[in-house]
Amino acid sequence: MSIYYQDENVLLLHGDGIRDEPGGGADAHREWLNADVLVTDPPYGISYNSGSRRENLAASILGDETTEMRELALNLWDERPALVFGTWRIPRPFDTRALLVWDTKGALGMGDLSIPWKPSHQEVYVLGQGFAGKRTTDVLTYAPVQSMSRGGRVHPHQKPIPLMRDLIAKCPPGVIADPFAGSGSTLVAAKLLGRKAVGVELDEAYCELIAKRLDQGVLDLGGIA
């Protein structure tokens, strides 16, 4: 585990934040587990395989064959507040208090071509206590980051900044943690809100991408973030 990027709000660590690394012991987990709120999109067992034609967009996600990584992270996190992305195809985390539905405005891939409906939503699980803010619907309508558009997504599961910003705005006070940082949308949204955050990413190429996005600061506001 090593520090890849750090500013006054965000700490990004390069390494495995879930499993012990050789010679790392419990220290491998320490930084993100000292945070206050978990906001993450873990590998959750769908064996994702993209048909995108973009050469710079990975076709799969490491560890996505099972729910092992999600369950390890939630066991480490225990009963503290968390927002965790998922899908109806996989059993929801134990002790899920509420289900939020991210309506992607009809844009989320083709799905099962043998039936006359296509997927246009993802799930977000609310765990723990302390969430607050204006009471709104549990259906969250935000356009996703398109894969083929100019400035399109650079990670298979990249989340739009407006969605992440509005989710974090209702989180309890304190530091935001994301041990599966991916493209860094959670960290960017937290920084835009003036929240402190700590992220962990195993893939150094994504660490480089996250650092560049964080350096953009308040410029990274749009729906194509």
Total number of helices: 5
- What do we call the CATH topology? Rossmann fold
Secondary structure class reads: alpha/beta
Q: What's the architecture in CATH terms?
A: 3-Layer(aba) Sandwich
- One letter per element, helices H and strands E, the order comes to EEHEHEEEEHEHEH
Helix content: 10-25%
- Whole-number mean pLDDT: 84
Could you tell me the radius of gyration in angstroms? 16 Å
Number of domain modules: 1
Question: What would you note in describing this structure?
Answer:
- The chain is an alpha/beta fold.
- The chain has one domain: Rossmann fold.
- The chain is 20% helix and 19% strand.
- It has five helices and nine strands, in the order ββαβαββββαβαβα.
- The chain has helices at residues 27-33, 68-77, 161-169, 185-192, 204-215, and strands at residues 2-6, 10-14, 37-40, 82-86, 98-103, 121-127, 139-141, 176-178, 197-201.
- A nine-stranded mixed sheet has the order 1-2-9-8-3-4-6-5-7, sandwiched between helices.
Describe the structure using short key phrases.
single chain; 225 residues; alpha/beta; Rossmann fold; nine-stranded mixed beta sheet; 5 helices; 20% helix; globular
Provide a short characterization of the protein structure.
With 225 residues, the protein is α/β, with parallel strands linked by helices. The protein is 20% helix and 19% strand.
